[in-house]
Amino acid sequence: MISQADKARVAEAIRAAETKTSGEIFCVIARHASDYRLVPLAWAAAIALVVPAPLIYLTLWPASIIYLVQLLVFIAAALVLSLPGIRFHIVPRRTQRERAHVQAMQQFFAQGLDRTENRTGVLIYAAVAERYAEIVADAGINAKVTPQVWEAAIGALIAGIKQGRPGDGFVAAIERCGAVLAEHFPPGALNPDELPNRLVEI
Question: How far is the C-alpha of 119 from the C-alpha of 169, rounded, in Å?
Fold first, then answer.
């Protein structure tokens, strides 16, 4: 999803941003937040349930044949709808956003962003298949910065991914987040780097 050169650019952007703040920035890009394996099955079952009615009224086929046709329709629909190019288009947008948000929160805790000394960890997260981006900030930051402040950074990240340049999107988002953090959380005397400066691809 993202080249090694872009990963290096992102790491450098994080390092540069963190020299001006006591906050910690970490980036995660996910191919997708979920595989949604059950969604094609649900659609296939709904399609298969409709099949018997017209066959009962319009044909003289026995129940065994109608059942066989219904079963074949279910299998064919499940196989077709499970293709990646189709599967992500039949998942409700709300479901995609919910799954992506859940994964963003999981990554926030998995990467240790909740364990910084002053609770100033920030996760920049993007799920490509869902076309979803989110910035998750720890308690210390949320006490001073409202979620709306991050909208410009999220917009820059989404724009870069849509244009096929996720590296540019992350760098732009990091720079915007860094500016907000520098304003509210200037670096201390020591300013230790508590988390690795990198982008994780999952």
Answer: 25
Gyration radius from the chain CA atoms? 23
Helices (H), the chain: 4-18, 38-50, 52-58, 63-81, 84-90, 93-110, 139-142, 151-162, 166-184
Rounded distance between C-alpha atoms, residue 14 and residue 27, angstroms: 9
Which is it for strands 24-30 and 199-201: parallel, antiparallel or unpaired?
Answer: parallel
Q: What distance in Å separates the CA atoms of residue 9 and residue 194, rounded to the nearest whole number?
A: 19
Residue type, position 7, single letter: K
Torsion over CA: 154, 156, 162, 164 (sign): negative
pLDDT digits (tens, 9 = 90+) for 89-140: 999 999 999 999 999 999 999 998 988 888 889 999 999 989 899 999 998 8
Reported as half-sphere exposure (CB side, CA atoms, 13 A), residue 58 has a value of 5
Cα–Cα distance for residue pair 84/188, rounded to 1 Å: 48
**Percentage of residues of the chain with pLDDT beyond 70:** 99
55, amino acid identity: L
pLDDT of the residue at 191: 66
**Model pLDDT, residue 170:** 96
